[in-house]
Each structure stands twice: as structure tokens, then as C-alpha cells.
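Hello again,

I reread your note about wanting to compare the complex against the isolated chains. To keep things tidy I'm splitting this into two emails, and this first one only covers the full assembly. Below are the input lines as submitted, including protein chains and any nucleic acid or small-molecule components. They are followed by the predicted structure of everything together. The single-chain runs will come separately.
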Amino acid sequence: MTRRVLVTGATGFIGQYTLLPLRELGFNIHVAGRTPPDDPDVTFHTANLFDQADAVRVARDAEASHLLHLAWNTEPGRFWNSPLNLDWVGASLSTVKAFAEAGGARVVLAGTCAEYRWGADTPLDENRSELAPETLYGVSKDALRRIVSSYADLASLSFAWGRIFFLYGPGEKPGRLVSDAIRTLGGKQPFATTDGNQRRDFMHVEDVARAFALLLASEVQGSVNIASGKAVPVRSILEAIARETGGQEMLRLGERPRPANDPATIEAAVDRLRYEVGFTPRHTMSDGLAQSVKWWKDRGSDLPN
Amino acid sequence: MTRRVLVTGATGFIGQYTLLPLRELGFNIHVAGRTPPDDPDVTFHTANLFDQADAVRVARDAEASHLLHLAWNTEPGRFWNSPLNLDWVGASLSTVKAFAEAGGARVVLAGTCAEYRWGADTPLDENRSELAPETLYGVSKDALRRIVSSYADLASLSFAWGRIFFLYGPGEKPGRLVSDAIRTLGGKQPFATTDGNQRRDFMHVEDVARAFALLLASEVQGSVNIASGKAVPVRSILEAIARETGGQEMLRLGERPRPANDPATIEAAVDRLRYEVGFTPRHTMSDGLAQSVKWWKDRGSDLPN
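Full-complex prediction:
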């Protein structure tokens, strides 16, 4: 039987990379949103997800067996505490409910490492680590997960929740760490930053997207960290970018203080992703960063704007 | 300065009784909803709260300093696990956000004792008791509270959350314990029920409504139990109704099993309500039940339908 997926956020940073692996996994792909993805093989449904009636119409038209709901506000810097998080909780609930009521069977939504209490000295674990979100984004995602989980039980919906950690790669918006470092160092401008000793679990966006596709295709339920499982010092990423761009002289580590309470390490336990979903990353950090630098160079965006 | 409140759910079981105490507390009253309340002194705004644009329009038109958001689906029996809980989370978030963005200062929303883990042998306490909702209604309310609390911090909104326990009184819908007992026993029909040994914290709906009005008028923030603080055996309520209706012969205690895991006691700690908000109930159980029986008699509804 052909499986049909309805994808939201398909033109977003992660979403754009989900279409290829979804197709490879045998999914027939439908997309809902404001703008169609640059892909002739998807069926596109124009939709304003903030409008309940649109969510219902698209769910009925798409008749999908699977829903991959990635759409959210992720404006760099602002999304952590944007009031739009409230609207996205509502839109996500409408989308999931409309999908279930149209006969859908399985939903996968995007969660975040910001649901966890940061600062633990062991990897963050889906079953054992404490949840204590400190931003409106983290609180909203955590609350959404609680509701969808309860609803899924009642509606006999198969439900998984992929917790995204840190990511980078071609197509990243300006205003985020890796994209800003590439553009600034590539433009031979000074890049003033922290000491970079904080360790973060970064994964290439193509791997993140493929992990979501595999999670969707699996029968795994509940929360699953979408991450590499290996945190690295942020300075090692910046130094690699500096080498790749030839901007070594411009990297100013230690010129900015780290925020108070900035956790030493944010690292995911990835047993569920590796052994239950069967995912392993394909990109190494060095090849992924080289690819990202090349992407920016190809666009001629060698100066910050 | 005159305070102006925007009330949602003003024609609901609790909402209808909030208008008088709100007026006594000096509020100028605006109401948003589908149907106007039977009260010539309120300003009514027709609104579909599921429509974000309506929420924004009403918030701008009302220009209220205070929001008392009581609207929710409470269809007896069904509301515990109705998918409509998802829609009400979205509508509540839209309503609160629109109110804040229109310049509102203080919001009070209705929570529920179903946010707590039931089964504790001490009164349920806002600060110390564990939260572990087991129904979609409880999960949705708990999740909504988390989001609004985080949003209120960022938006400099004063926020309180009134956790409703058990209530009864004139105007209660059929399909709930007290309303069904009154109608069945009043109609001299057999009322088959449990042993009635479970103890529940019941409060008269007029007292619940007045507590919400006082909470709104106060500056108390966070979660506040809206309850009597004294759980009574359900059988004592049913026996009082039987006496009041003359249906003593028809009360069949012990004919139905109590649900598995039915908690022995659900009782609120009411220190916050009593000492911070300054509320004490006015109705005794016996006068409240007599008034409720009279209300049904006056309507001629002496038989179940």
C-alpha cells in the first residue's frame, strides 16, 4: 500500500530536506502551506494553517495516512520568546485534529531540546531527563506535546515527537551561529564571540531531515531525540569555519561573555534514534561545514548584511 | 479609575453568576461570545472565539483592563475527553494574546482540579501537590496554564488561574450528579448510584463565580484553588437531595460500582483563596441544595429527560 504523507513547513530549513528521503522511503508527498516547495513531484495545497477551516479542508483533500508537521515560527533570535509561539500551538492542534478526523493514522511533530532542563552532566534522555523549559518556545512545544500525546491515545493515532537539538547546513538563515560565522569570517570581518568552550550537540540539517523521515516511516512512538549524540565545543566548529573560509585571523574567541547560566554541555542520548528508528548520521562535521561554506560562497554572500 | 472586564463564557454555568459580583466590585462589564447574557447592563460583542480575527477585533473594541476567560466546552460526561478541548486551547491562547496586545493588564482563566494527581490523602495544594492530569480536559488545561504563565511573564501581564473543583446549583445542566439526582428523585424515579463514600469538595456555583470575581479584582497571581476546602461524602449530598425532594425511597446507594481508581477524597487546600484573595463561601450545602431543588421544581422539570 502506498503511504501518503502531508508535510507542513516543507519550505523551511529542515522541511526542504525531508522531501527526498520521504520519497526514497516510498511516500507519496502532499504539502500544505503558503508557498509551494521547489519540487514538481509533490501535490501542493495552499493553506493558512492559522485558519481552522483551511486545516480541515487540506486534511480532507490530502487524505494522507501520515502527517509530518514541522511548520513553526523560527525567526532567528526572536523565536525563543515570540508571541507567535501561541499561534503555532493553536495551528498545530488544529492541524493534528483535522488530520486525525480525516482518517490519518500517524503523526510526527517537531519538538525541541529546550523542553529539557539544561545543565545536566549526562546526555539528555527522553525517558529519564527532567523537563523544565525556560523559554516560551520550549514551554509551548512541551505543552503541545502533552496535549497531542493525550489526544493521540484517545484518537488511536500513532504519535512520535522528534526533539531537535542544534543544527546547521546549507540554507540556514542569517542570524544563527554557523550562518553568521560563515558570512562574517568569509567576508574577512571580525567575528567576536564567546570563549566557545560550551559543548553543543550539532547535526547537519540533511541528517536531521532524514531522521524525521525515518521516524515517520517507523512505528516508534513518544519522544525521540533528533541529534548526533556527540556534543562538541562550539569553538571547534568556529575554528573549522575559520579554516574553511580563510578567516582565521578574524575569529575573536572570548570577546563576548557567555550568558549567565549558559550550560556547559547540551548533548542528546540517541539510543532511541539509533536502535529503535535505525538512524545514523551521514555527514561528518568537517564535510558538513565545508559544504555550508561552499553554499554561501556560491550565493556570493561573503559579507554580512 | 473604572476597571473594565471582558468576560467570555458569560452565559455558562459559572459565567452567568459572575456578572453580579463583578458589578458589585466596580467593574464595567463587556461580554464576548455567541449569545448575549440576559443582562441589559453589559456591552455585548458577538464573537466566534475560534476565529483569531474575531478575538483581535473584540479585544480592540472592548479596550478592557481585565479579562475573565471562562469559555470552554463542558458538555456533561463528554468534555473529559472531547477533541473540542484542542480547539479551546487554541481559542484561549488567541483570546489572551489579543487581549494583551490590545493593552490589557490582568487575565484570569479557569483551570481544574483535574490538573492534579488524584488520590493524595492531604488536601490538593497549589504549590506542593503533584500535577498529573489523566484526561484530555485536564491535560489541555494544564498545558494551557503553562503557556499562558510563560507568555504573561514576557508580556508583563498579571495572571491568575482559578482551579475549579466540584460545583452544583441552579442552572446546572442535566447529566451531572446533582442535577440528575434532583430530577430523578424529584420525579420519584429510582436513582441507582455508587456507595457514595467518596468525598468530594463541592461548592455552590454562586460562590464559585464570586470567588472568580474576587480573584480577578485582586492582584493574586498563579494558581488558586476555587473550592470550599471541605470535602463531603457524596452520599451525604444525595441523602440531602432525597430528603429535599421527598425521594428517600428512590435513592439506591451502592447499586453501581465506583470506577477503578476512583479516589477516596478530592479536597482543595484553600489558604490562597481564603487569605490572599479574601474569599469565604456564603452558601451552606443544605441551603444550596434546597435552592437547587426549588429551581428545578419551578421549571416543572420533575422527570428526567
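For quick reference: The interface with chain A takes residues 50, 52, 81, 83, 85-87, 89-91, 93-94, 96-97, 100-101, 133, 135-136, 139-140, 142-144, 146-147, 149-151, 154-155 of chain B (CB under 8 Å).

B.
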